[in-house]
Amino acid sequence: MTSVLARPHGRHPGGAPRRRLVVVGNGMAGARAVEEILARGGAGQFSITMFGDEPYGNYNRIMLSHVLSGEESDADIFLNALSWYRENSITLHAGVRVDRIDKPTKHVFSNDGRVTPYDTLIIATGSRSHMPPMDGLYTPGGSLKHGIFGFRTIDDTRRMVQHAQQDQHRRAVVIGGGLLGLEAAYGLKSHGIEVEVVHSGGHLMNAQMGPDGGAVLRRSVEALGIGVHTSSRTTAVLGTDKVTGVSLRDRDNIACDMVVVAAGIRPNVDIAVLSGLPVERAIVVDDQLRVQDEDHIYAVGECVQHRGEVYGLVAPLWEQAVVLANHVTGADTSSVYLGSRTATKLKVAGVDVASMGLHGPELETDEHIVFSESGRGVFKSIVVRDNKMVGATLLGDSRKVAYLTQAFDRGLPLPEERIALLFDVGGPGGEAGVAELDDGAQVCNCNGVSKGALVAAVMGGCASVSGAMDATRAGKGCGSCKLLVRQVVEWAADGAVEEDPAASYYVPGIPLDKAALMAAIRAQDLRSVSQVFAALAPGSAEDAKSKMGLASLLKMMLADRYIDERDARFINDRVHANIQRDGTFSVVPQMKGGVTSVQQLRRIADVAEKHNVPLIKLTGGQRIDLLGIPKEDLPQVWADLDMPSGYAYGKSFRTVKTCVGKDFCRYGTGDSTSLGIQIESRFQGIEAPAKLKLAVSGCPRNCAESLVKDVGVVAVEGGRWEVYVGGAAGAHIRKGDLLATVDDPEEVTVLTGRFMQYYRERANWLERTYAFVPRVGIGHLRAVIVEDAEGIAAQLDAAMQASVDSYVDPWSERDDPQTPGQFRTSLPLTVLPQVPVR
Amino acid sequence: MSTDPMGTDPMGAHPASADSASYNLGPVDQIPFGEGRAFGVEGEQVAVFRLRDGSLRAVSAVCPHRGGPLADGTIDRLVVVCPLHQHAFELETGCSTTGAEPLRTYAVQADGEQNIILLSSQRVGNYSA
How much of chain A, in percent, has pLDDT values that exceed 70? Predict the structure, then answer.
């Protein structure tokens, strides 16, 4: 029967028939094993067939928590797209489950009725969520009750997000306070859901740390607004058709609309059991990753039991895949896997957690070094035996993790002063720490990149950080190791670190830093983006990724003299609106200082009604956002609004947020509202290297959040005003630095303008003030801007005045399109992922 | 032959003649230098770009990553950059320089009357696999 079912064998150039390699499982272990096999010339030896239960390519399961929290989109976590399988001539059966292996005839049987012959078989079936026994989990039909979720697959995650986003769903219970449970809780919290974690253990993450660390972690988790119930067992999920709550043993019931079960994982061993392979806690393999007593069947990953250990982490999987590939391809038949020492380093619910070896002392002679600062969520514990480190737990501060992992893995001699294990106390700094690392030490835990691999990439010619990252994929997973990657590359290049040659360029396509670029533009009197490319770019080549930055810079430098080529603008600046994920635009009319009127509100309401605006949203900058406007409707929407642009789309001055100020507020000491309006009126729309968000607060209660703005103004008692610069509260959080305290609102406006002009002239493209201010230093800024130490204040003020004078409301283009088809649709005709209408 | 300058009719342009399968999309002047515009051609959307040297390029109009409107992208002589997530695609080959799936490319030129002529039959295939 084999001859009928088998596909014709491919032949590689040598003429020998290729053997058939079948991989059961298309998760991280299966795909990694195949990658390692391909890296050892496996494509010439094997025709490869992969079966995956899930109907997708291969994705980074570790990142599912980021998808849940919305930090990553589900499309961004795919490791190998379907094209990868095509390019490597791998036959992928996605969404097909293998049910049984027939060992004697060497075939696998899958649930689509297919019978596939193999010469070599790899089992990489991974794990599934463990559903602990309790009442009410399942419907009478045997499926999970509506509202109950595992947290294992991309489909689980998508369904959880969908469920959490339905308005009536407000409360969730997560069963399990381990790593996965806390990630689930944190992710759901970011959707605005009230979350309670029910954990049967005595403290959180008891597999990774002792009770003292668990207590500190609990405080950090509770500080996020997540409820924690330890030593609690869930006995039942309540509700008939859908979830209404859970009942706990010896505690009150908790009402909820959804339940996430994250109570551990269990290896998928059904196929192995059915096929007569040896299974204890998981599929038993030897040091070559061969299934015990089988010549042609290997297994790898979480479905494997090796020397009594079953691993649930990614690092052992990488080590196993290497050994397996060495044997399957014959590249190194002496290669053996001797087990992994599991050191975990991750971010759980926003908290850095690292854990290895023992959680606490076990012998009387064990040393235990502990530091606990629960207020800051920092906990460090290290166990030393016979002058060797045998265990460590680090919470909230992972700076010493690389060194400690190394000390743990290799049994390095330890410093006599044990405190040096916990903190950098003078002495060797970060670079020495990197030098101490062994070549085998893993730097990137997501992609399994060792220090040695990074060093090899540097020796092979990647002398820049980004080059080495591209070559090895280090830092391309969760990104938490980027600092360490940079340190290793800098160390390996031994001072000759080529700073990325392009790192100092203002835009990638012109090899000049900002000062040199501005000087060249002035010297050659260049007035348009195409003139800049012709004069200054290598080979006079245009560069799409440089256009927007150059357009902004030239407009800032030349004001009225700038020759405005529309193609150099980003789409937002071509049509004066912010492009959305579905290709429609958002329209935010100007609302100075967040103050509006009956007339404005009525007009906005009329426009929204007339144009069937799908979403009307209040912005963080105290304006009203009309979302989902097709490009071709923009001119009419602006005409109907008859209000100026609020510039909510550009790398430019955006808005001034204000509090109600002294006229109404009983605490207000300054007229913040009118000062905010005055500042916004003056600086509306000016271009900058990155966006500028401002605020004015009428008293130190800071209701307009002035301390976390690019420029923030606070009225203080005695009619004085404080001006802060370089604050941020987005992806990056930074309290602004006090630039000056002045007596007069006019002076606030002057200093604000002078600071912004200095920033416009000196900051790198897309460098927000929160990076610019610390880079140049607040002392320097005070000297230049307040004290005029360099004698350029008048010049800065004049340049800003020229920009202010050249302001034209861009929405006036509605009656006079600047280019043919400026507002013509570019929307695809096919149905796109739509932003949901609320 | 009919053209659809607004690109809103799903059927869009029809062949100028049945066997040549070339489509007249109307005057080149619809597209400003250095920009792109979208056209509907036989139910498919095609983004046509007019480079600063005056030459034309045509690729499928929908970014394979997340459906972004490529006609709204920024271009240079070689690539178009999608406005949504900055994936870049070579205008000649459709291949992505940032790891996305490739675009379909079409042969396109201006005729003697400065009309855009799209040759559907001579599309450069990227779907050989």
Answer: 94
Q: What's the CATH code, domain A652-808?
A: 3.30.413.10
Q: What pLDDT score was predicted for residue A642?
A: 92
CB spacing of A583 vs B69 below 8 angstroms: yes
Chain A, chain B: beta-carbon pairs less than 8 Å apart: 117
Write out chain B residues lying below 8 Å of A828, CB-based.
38, 45, 61-62, 67, 69
At A557 the pLDDT is 93
Whether chain B has a CB inside 8 Å of the CB on A567: the answer is: yes
Q: Does A832 touch chain B (CB under 8 A)?
A: yes
Residue B5: inside a domain, yes or no? no
Among 3.10.450.50, 3.40.50.300, 3.50.50.60, 3.10.20.30, name the CATH number for the domain at A148-263. Answer: 3.50.50.60
| Residue A73 with chain B: CB contacts under 8 Å | 66
Query: According to CATH, where is 3.50.50.60 located in chain A?
Result: 2-128+267-329, 148-263
Name the nearest CA neighbour of A626 among A640, A571, A683, A826.
Answer: A640
Confidence band, pLDDT 50/70/90 cuts, at residue A55? confident
Query: How does pLDDT run across A463-482, given as a tens digit for each residue?
Result: 778 778 877 778 765 556 77
Interface pTM (ipTM) of the complex?
0.84
CA A282 to chain centre: 33
Name chain B contacts of A541, Cβ cutoff 8 Å.
Answer: 76-77
CA distance, residue A543 to nearest chain B CA (Å):
5
Q: Which chain B residues are closer than 8 Å to A544 by Cβ?
A: 73-76, 79-81, 88
CB atoms within 10 A of CB A178: 21
Instruction: Estimate the crossing angle of helix A465-472 against helix A451-459, to 10 degrees.
Output: 120
Confidence bin at B110 (pLDDT 50/70/90): very high
pLDDT at residue A501, rounded to an integer: 65
Q: Which of A456, A451, A448 is nearest to A439 (CA)?
A: A451
**3-state DSSP percent of chain B in helix, strand and coil, to 5:** 5, 40, 55
CB contact under 8 A, A81 and B43: no
Looking at the structure of chain B, the number of domains it has is: 1
Indicate the length of chain A as a whole number: 838
